[in-house]
Specification:
With 187 residues, the chain is mainly alpha-helical. 41% of the residues lie in helices and 9% in strands. The chain is globular and about 70 Å long. This is non-specific serine/threonine protein kinase. It comes from Triticum turgidum subsp. durum.
């Protein structure tokens, strides 16, 4: 008789997902600018790990609801149900639907489309915008404003989080998020 057994080890994540914090104004007060920066940097580090592997992993559904926050609000990328592993960095064609429309590059809504790292990079930029704007920034895809409108919206927000040092952080975050969105769309 063998003493071997299989087990799944899972980390307890007590602070829900990022989407929960961004949609509930009472919880969002916990996410001050330094915490938001920590979360953005953690997501970038996690995505860099996935994309930097010998066999890169494309998440294909990166969004606040798929980012869990531990006791220290450290982000953990979760829900790899749509993820794909490839032996190289080449682009692939697919006729299948992936991701959540709000965080999906526009050209990926037509079939066939190419699966590349750009898919996750666009989702990262869209997620960063969501982290920056908080609950007040919730908009529908067909109402998506341009970069200048995002900046104006964040700077004039009545949301208490932005009253102190938001101009400095917005000037740091918006260009980065804009770069990710531009890179994903134009290479």
């Amino acid at each position: 008789m063998s003493n071997k057994f299989s087990a799944i080890w899972m980390e307890f994540i007590p602070n829900h997902d990022l989407g929960h914090h961004l949609s509930d104004a009472s919880k969002s007060e916990v996410l001050d600018w330094p915490k938001r920066l920590q979360i953005i940097m953690g997501i970038c580090k996690g995505l860099g790990f996935l994309h930097g592997r010998e066999k890169p992993i494309r998440h294909l559904d990166l969004k606040p609801a798929n980012i869990l926050l531990d006791k220290d609000l450290t982000p953990k990328i979760a829900d790899f149900g749509l993820s794909r592993i490839y032996n190289d960095n080449k682009t692939r064609l697919t006729k299948s639907s992936y991701g959540t429309v709000e965080f999906m590059p526009p050209e990926y809504q037509e079939f066939p489309f190419e699966i590349s790292m750009k898919f996750d990079i666009f989702s990262l930029g869209a997620t960063m915008i969501k982290i920056i704007t908080g609950p007040e920034g919730n908009i529908k895809r067909d109402q998506t404003p341009g970069k200048e409108e995002y900046i104006k919206r964040v700077r004039t927000s009545a949301f208490p989080l932005y009253l102190d040092i938001h101009n400095m952080y917005v000037s740091l975050f918006i260009p980065s998020a804009d770069y990710f969105l531009y890179y994903a769309l134009h290479g």
